[in-house]
Amino acid sequence: MNIASENEREKASMERKDEAPDWSGESAASEAEKAQGKALTLGAALAANDAPSSNGEGESFVPEGKEPDFVLVHSSVDESGSAGPPVPEAEGADKAGGDEIPSALEDESADNDRSDETLSVPGSEGVVHAQGVVSGRLPLLGVSQDLPPTFASRIYGFFALSPLLTLSVMLLLQTIFSLDARDLWFSDEVRHADAFRYLLEQGKGVILYMNGAPYPDKPPLYFWFLRGLYEILRSEGPMLHFAGAALSALLYLWAALALGRIVGRVDRRSNLAAGIILLSTGYMMGLIHYGRMDLLFSALILVSHILLYKALTGDKSEYARMGAGFLLAGLAVMVKGPLGLALPLASVLLFALWTARPQRLFRPDFLFGLLVALLPTGVWLLLVFLESGSPDFITGSLLKQQVLERALDTFHHKEAWHFYLLRLPLFFLPWTLLAFCLPWWKLPVAETRRGIAEARTPLKQGLAFLWCMIIAALILLSALSGKILIYFLPCLAPAAILAGRAVLGLKGFGAGLLRYGMALHMLAAGILVLVAALMLFGVLPMPDFKGLPEWRIAADGGFFLVAILLLLFGALIWTGLSGSRPEGTLLFMALACTSLGYPLGGLVAPSFDAVMSPKDQGLLMRAYADKGYVPATYKVYGGTYSFYAGRAVKELGDLKEAANLATGGKVILALNRDRLREWGEKPESFVEIHRQWIESRQYVLLASPPDAGIKAAPAAYRPGPDLFRGVTDLLNTGALQKIREFFPSVPRPGGEDAKPQVSPPDQLSPPSREKAPADGATPSDQTSPPFKSEDTGPDASQSGETQGPSQDEDVSPAP
Length: 815
Hints:
By secondary structure, this protein is of the alpha+beta class.
């Protein structure tokens, strides 16, 4: 934007006004020039430089009597230099002009304590066209405070100089020390690990296999991603899958920051706030330690949204951006399924309707993008057809079962339409508390109407696009038959961006309310964890949750460390902050989630192996299979044992099959305890050898006949990586010994007080505290190499195996 040229045009128009006769009482030329010279005043919140004030609602304004820091002139001059029709000014916009460039715009290193961010003067190519399409640069939408800076706001400003670096280090510290801390859990982690094991053994990846049969539930792209990571780590055990989740989380974080900067046009301070909210959300903190493909899936969707937004808001056809955006959506489909394309399409459709430009979706570049989106899936389906030799796998397993039935009438995760509305407040904790801190009572009807109108202008339509992402996803996902909370993960990033701007706009009462709300949340969480730890050690009685009094996990000092950290940060947020600015709360939340990364992932999570991982029974099943037993399950979620068993496990649909197998040979069978009680004609040769809780059910291993030479494996309890073994040992010996001395009645979780692994029918033994054998090692021979069994299981067509859960098996896999 050339301010000098605007002044010259204004002088020329004044001269023409003096020469031309005024036929209507007012010069027509003057009217045109007035329209061309209208200026939209942007405070620091809109220009992303030193904004003078904030109304406490995340939007800044210019107080009366203060000169604006930045002026955006609406020009009707097109790129060729010819004057076009006057451009109407945004409703309610302040008017100002200026002949000099503000000093804040000349120096991009303005005081971070007062200004959110400075911006160089946009070039003269920045033209706002009448249809609302913007070419060139627009100012960033920052949020600033008119309150005096505090020590916390200065520290926050320093870290905001590079949000990408700050947040990447935070994520690294949350994950690096717990990559090999625990075993793989039921149900997704062990199933995906078995599919990857087959990919390595077969050297193919077009059609995935799990438990010896085709696995149509997931496309192969995420497993190809793990294959590339395997070449670096050279490990196929849990570390590979947790490293894949951590790297996917990093890509998701970077995509979220790009979404805020490019689409939302937020400044560095707001982007840092969005990233802190993202990484300190409880759901996200757990997900970065869980081996799933959803984070990579969501990262591709976010980048797809960025490119599609840039293409849609351009003033001409955008084949390159449109094609790239839809290509990423097509790759997202190859990671997890059709939602990778459906979510961007829903957002684009709603945004086009909101901006009153639905005709934009019928341009050739948009249709070209749709064809590009189908390209990755089309190539994959062609390769599937060539490998399978028949279209039945595509039409039956992929399209009918995995697409149509899941969308329209699934038996798995079938929920009511309001599923997401009721659970999203939990999904966004602890930042759901922000809804109670915003000054809703200060939002009059006129202000609301003006805000809605401004959301259609080029300057604010990026923020409107973020809302479209959330609303469109909510409508689409609620319409599907199968519903899982993790499907909403692509919308966590735009929600965090909007929440970050809202948090920085708080001051006074709102900032204080958020501060005390976060403090109470941390204190309450610390008390709950402390109570849970005392229950684990027998100091407090364990209540009967849904008839599961035997549901036990390994007592560990990490629970006390987590409780202490939560209580400490709660107290610091309550008492250690002063002033009425929100930056201190953001900093303490960032420090809290980073400090809790290792205790949660490296100490507490491994304690759940005894009730979440099928490793113990899988290794025992493997030891029996090595001696000629047929490993089998009866109505157990498909693929639960095959990874740790190192081979395919026969899946039975009738207990008569198990009896027939026992008649003709040796069998080791896994089944639900309730189904065992229903087996009225159980052959006497079947003897229970092991019992374990896996998530919400107790599973029993029966051997026909039992082998006295095979002993049950010790529980897979590893308190942390070797780097922190000294810290772990100190917690689990010295600190816990003091606790046990103070409470003499506390039973030891291992050693002399531990119950034997082979327990009576209605009793579950607590896990041993011995170090687990290497991943994949059998109880009888721990020196055998992992997953190198020659027996990969019979073909599904020959064995009658069925993949996935039985219709009457109520499965509730971890998120």
